[in-house]
Amino acid sequence: MADRFVTGSTPPGLTVTGLAHAYEETAVLREATLTVPAGAFVAVLGPSGCGKTTLLRLVAGFERPLFGSIAVGGRMVSGPGLHVAPEHRRVGIVPQEGALFPHLSVAGNVGFGLGRPGRRSGHGDRVAEVLDLVGLRALADRMPHELSGGQQQRVAVARALAPRPAVVLLDEPFSALDAALRAELRAVVRAAVRADGTTAVLVTHDQQEALSIADQVAVLRDGRVVQSAAPDELYRAPRDLGVGRFVGESIVLPGTVVDGGVRTALGVLSVAGPLAPVDGRVSVLLRPEQVHLERTGDDVPPPAGRPVVAGRVLGSEFQGADSLVTVEIDDPRAPDGADRTVAVRERSARRRPGDRVTVTVTGPVRAFPPS
Predict the structure, then answer these.
(1) Which DSSP helix (H) or strand (E) runs through 130?
(2) Residue % of the chain over a pLDDT of 90
(3) Is residue 135 exposed (0-12), middle (13-18) or buried (19+ Cβ within 10 Å)?
């Protein structure tokens, strides 16, 4: 069958349109749509069971979708009446555990997808090139069992990049590593993929990982991509309350629409974006870094123009770089039993239970229909 190409002068690296899939009678993907620009590093973020790994398996060609289409580098590889075999899709895979061939050296693993080396094939040069990208050229002759877990994952990345795929897929490749090694390996992988100019798609449930490594983050929920945007935009302007709660830490308060904003336990706050109240009520989302505390009696006047309310510290949990302080807000308008507590992150101040504080909020908040 002849190749089918997506029209356009510069086709995206990956285009997924209306993808649907199910296992037996359980729907996993429901019309998932995603466009990945050529050369971009995109993270697909979502909780366990949302369809992330299924999406990767469909793009790789390991399974055939019920509906929808997939194009890799502008070439249609899956659609009505079309299913290109995995080995002909120009898609590289980095599995969760690396899955190196134990009987091959590092160089042998990396060169596996390049075919048998020939005199003028450039096989050895490409192996050396991608090992340089992941910082392992000096270990080319080692066997997999002689490597650390992080080194094995670097080899898996080099092996996926070696054949110059149109897209490389990374299936939570850092999840089995400790926190410090995860951060180091993320930086290595990001730099290697960028240097090689390859389009990359990472699936992960780790918010920090997605926000720190990706050019674009796509949030997958209940089998659909509910929002795809640059990390800072996704954090600052979530499309709905579910995205806002899932991407980064958040404080969610009930609010009532009034002139000038929304009234909450933290005062009347200004709102960014449109309002969609139900009977005048909304759910207000703000980030912990927007909330600031001062002890009552501190000779520091509250910033002009910012909402200021009083409260009492219920507890403080030291977490290394900062502390998570729980404050009960004084709000005589709140009904009995209403939750008037907020969690605030502070970098230096130490709070004790019972401390009286004033609470100020900086910047506009987001408001959504009440949850």
Answers:
(1) helix 123-133
(2) 52
(3) middle
Which SS3 state, helix, strand or coil, does residue 162 take?
Answer: coil
How deeply is 345 buried, as exposed, middle or buried, from its count of CB atoms within 10 A (0-12, 13-18, 19+)? Answer: middle
Is the pLDDT assigned to residue 83 strictly greater than 90? yes
Q: Which of 161, 220, 223, 250 is nearest to 42 (CA)?
A: 220
| 35-60: pLDDT as tens digits | 999 999 999 999 888 899 999 999 99
pTM: 0.86
Sheet holding 224-229, edge to edge: 91-94, 167-171, 199-204, 41-45, 216-221, 224-229
Backbone angles phi, psi at 287, to 5 degrees: -100, 150
User: Which residues does 183 contact at the CB level (< 8 Å), separation at least 6?
Assistant: none
DSSP letter assigned to residue 315: E
- For residue 344, the surrounding DSSP H or E stretch is strand 341-346
CA torsion through residues 266, 267, 272, 275, sign: positive
Minimal CA–CA distance to 193: which of 5, 33, 36, 15? 36
Per the DSSP assignment, residues forming a β-bridge with 201 are 42, 169
Alpha helices in 278-335 (DSSP H): none
Do residues 235 and 347 touch, judged by C-beta distance below 8 A?
no
Show the tokens assigned to 23: 């296992």
Q: Confidence class of residue 352 from pLDDT cuts 50, 70 and 90?
A: confident
Position 5 confidence tier, pLDDT thresholds 50, 70, 90: very low
pLDDT digits 0-9 by tens, 149-173: 889 999 999 999 999 999 999 998 8
Structure confidence by residue, pLDDT tens digits, 178-208: 877 888 888 898 999 999 899 999 999 999 8
Q: Which residues of 286-323 are buried (b: 16+ CB within 10 A; e: fewer)?
A: bbbebbbbbeeeeeeeeeeeebebebebebbeeeeebb
Per the document, the length of the chain is: 371
Domains, the chain, ordered by start: 4-242 (3.40.50.300), 250-368 (2.40.50.140)
In the structure encoding, which two tokens stand for residue 320, read together?
Answer: 């290394």
pLDDT at residue 181 in the model: 83
Name the H helices within 275-317: none
